[in-house]
Amino acid sequence: MFEIVTARGVHMRIAIVGGGFAGLAAAQLAEEVTADVRLFDKGSYSGERRGAWGEMVWDYSQLPLERDVPGYVREATTGIFVGHDGKTAINVPDGVILNRGELEKHWVGTLERTEIVEDATVDQGEFRRLAEESDLLVDATGQFPISRRFTDLSYDVACPTLSGRIEADFSHLYPEPRALAYENYFLWIVPQSPAEATVGLGCREQKSPEKLYADMRRLLTELDIEPPARETLYSGTDVSNGLRSLSHCTYELNDCTVHIAGDAIGLANRLTGFGMVHAAQSGRTAVRAFVQQESYKRRLVCQNFWTKVVTGAASPIHASIGLEGIASLAKSDIEYQESFEPQQPGDIVSAVRKFI
Ligand SMILES: Cc1cc2nc3c(=O)[nH]c(=O)nc-3n(C[C@H](O)[C@H](O)[C@H](O)COP(=O)(O)OP(=O)(O)OC[C@H]3O[C@@H](n4cnc5c(N)ncnc54)[C@H](O)[C@@H]3O)c2cc1C
User: Fold this and answer.
1) CA–centroid distance, residue 248 to ligand 1 (Å)
2) DSSP 315
3) Is 156 exposed, middle or buried (0-12, 13-18, 19+ CB in 10 A)?
4) Concatenated DSSP letters for 279-312?
5) What is the pLDDT of residue 178?
6) Topology classification of domain 13-75+96-154+241-355
């Protein structure tokens, strides 16, 4: 149970817009501190909620979830990077392959005191109205968040992606997840079983889904994998560019505090399977910081400093440090997350000394 350390709490009204990992984690914590929690999502938790995105988490212990729940597929503690400078295996402490749609469906079902409003696209006007009715509004709307209407948040770099869960022969790759780096692409293959995998292609330049699909077909064929039909794939965007500033993570709207969490504030780290972990952590932090009257920005900076460094530093020097370098940076991210929750700027400085 979350410990309430301020007088806030009992009558607090919390609204959360966006019910992915960030929003669900925010709701999970919020309902421990108040009975007035509402979660809005433009989609629905029934059926094929998400199809498939990436579904690899490198440190499941960082998620506020039990093991062996629906959507927890299996352990996978080794990931393999493959690129022009060779093959690098990276061992991760608590890697798990997920079925994300199933996991989110399960997670939302565990929320007992949250009012869940599905199929509800919150627009600018509705967001303002929610702010009038709430003490805390969490914007967890993902890659192109609603808060871009209200802040200077910048969305400069975004990579188009194409992904899906496909059935084909993956026995030659099973069980390790693979990330394959090409000059302009990254392809990941996450086998759920020898006969099924989540496959995704991201591109470093703007390309239409059709062009991306043609490239995906070519790359999969080279790997002896039968390419999926176009209609089984989802177009997406990965905005984990590390350039979005945490200084916009909070603002006031109609006397309501708005905290932005997850991809909405750019916490994904494209080097590692940490997007979902960072989303869940920031969702909780968004609620916790408000309840405890702490600075949300400060907590986020402390929690995510290393991720920002890794993402920001590695992107431009990606080609020169090679896979070994990327793998060791990614590993540092894991170790940093595992060992450390810095509270003071001095802690951050000593962490940098330790890892660089
Ligand atoms: C192709 C791809 C592969 C990836 N692979 C991995 C991986 O293997 N491991 C990993 O950890 N991370 C991975 N990531 C990153 C990860 O998906 C994200 O970091 C994570 O989903 C962020 O969670 P979130 O809750 O912030 O946002 P999301 O999961 O995007 O959730 C946002 C939610 O908000 C809802 N929403 C949006 N707008 C509105 C609105 N106006 N009104 C109401 N609801 C709204 C959406 O329906 C959605 O449910 C991948 C990303 C992509 C694109």
Assistant:
1) 19
2) H
3) exposed
4) HHHHHHHHHHHHHTT--HHHHHHHHHHHHHHHHH
5) 86
6) FAD/NAD(P)-binding domain (3.50.50)
Q: How confident is the model at residue 157 (pLDDT cuts 50, 70, 90)?
A: low
Q: How many Å lie between the centroid of ligand 1 and the Cα of residue 265?
A: 12
Q: Considering the domain 159-238 in this protein, what is its CATH number?
A: 3.30.70
- What distance in angstroms lies between residue 11's CA and the mean position of ligand 1's atoms? 30
Give the pLDDT band (50/70/90) at residue 42: very high
Residues 58 and 68: their CA atoms lie apart, in Å, by 16
Going by C-beta distance under 8 Å and a sequence separation of 6 or more, which residues neighbour residue 215?
Answer: 185, 201, 203, 207
Write out residues with Cβ below 6 Å of ligand 1. 17-23, 40-43, 53-57, 120-122, 140-143, 146, 161, 163, 200, 236, 238, 262-264, 268, 273-276, 279
Domain parsing of the chain, residue ranges: 13-75+96-154+241-355, 159-238
Ligand 1 atom with least separation from CA of 268: 19
pLDDT score at 291: 96
How far does the centroid of ligand 1 lie from the alpha carbon of residue 279, in Å? 8
Residue 15 per-residue DSSP state: E
pLDDT in tens, 286-327: 999 999 999 998 888 777 766 666 666 655 555 555 666 666
| In contact, 158 and 241? CB cutoff 8 Å | yes
In order, the DSSP letters of 89-103 are EEE-TB-EEE-HHHH
